[in-house]
Amino acid sequence: MDQPTLTYDTLGFGEFDDFPETSEPVWILGKEFNALTEKEDILSHVTSRLWFTYRKNFPPIGGTGPTSDTGWGCMLRCGQMILGEALVRRHLGRDWRWVRSQSQREDYIGILNAFLDKKDGYYSLHQIAQMGVGEGKSIGQWYGPNTVAQVLKKLAVFDSWSRLAVHVAMDNTVVIEEIKRLCMPWLDYGGAACVDLQGGMSERNGCLEGACALAEEETALWNPLLLLIPLRLGLSDINEAYIETLKQCFQLPQSLGVIGGKPNSAHYFIGYVGEELIYLDPHTTQPAVEPCEDSQVPDDTYHCQHPPCRMHICEIDPSIAVLSHTRAGLPMFELIDCQPSHFACSVDVLNLNPDFSDSDRLERFFDSEDEEFEILSL
Fold first, then answer.
1. Which family does it belong to (predicted)?
2. Catalytic residue among 74, 249, 304, 309
3. pLDDT tens digits for 50-69?
4. What is the pLDDT of residues 5-19, one digit of tens each?
5. What's the whole-model pTM score?
6. Would you call 183 a catalytic residue per the annotation?
7. Strand, helix or coil at 135?
């Protein structure tokens, strides 16, 4: 990097407070815990989440680029964490728990390998950084959450094992028609089958794919959906009317959490207790990891084994995204059947083709220089 950066090291300078002794419920990614009687379960649940942090001494990005992401890669690591949670749900299930030194399942190893810091990992830092060049971000430049979302959406196309359909909602609106087109691409608008069974290519996440083309027996399936909804819930501070709705996000069993931050300070929010948000912090620099000869992955550093960090909910910026509705607060986005006529959107955008005009428009709004904190959620 040609510019100095200011960052901090969570393990080097942070203090880790235990969960407060409170009768208020602890909600983490759709599960409720009692802080007085289930502290061990809380820590086990948090530790089982994949924890991606700064790394050093990995192969140079692009062959001649950085060998560490300290100071610039925190939002990329947060994107990896929220996608990693999606893959754990997809392949291991909601109730899977990580146990230190336990023999690893093949699917778990497959997930970890997708994120190792090497050029051929589906979701490695190398892939995200290089794909970001097409988004106008040079290697070593800090990303906003929308850039990470758009890059992960593009990379997911090549992951034929997981077959995730990734959609970034726009204009505070989730259009069901767009979701159906993405998750059931073999259907036309009227619901009739339109898959090419003669070997033609299909589309997923707006990109053509050949190797992963749908087989005839797969056309009745719904592709697993990864839905990201960028929102803004106030001007300079979060509107208190949205706070209860934001909390409801972490109570949904489908919730994968919230990512967000400002340069050198991005976090992965996974739950709340009382008026505090619970989050995993990527600001720890650890050595890069290589698989063992037996293909096992030394994975201790990929799980946070200390109590997670907390911050007061009012400290977050109003640029957030959640998937929730509650009578106790204002709705944070709109859910509609079809795209309304006032959406100034071309057919190419509706078909989710990868020209990224939607990315450019969102980037100008969410990644402006005036934005101090940005959050993106599923």
1. Belongs to the peptidase C54 family.
2. 74
3. 999 999 999 999 999 999 99
4. 444 455 544 455 677
5. 0.81
6. no
7. helix
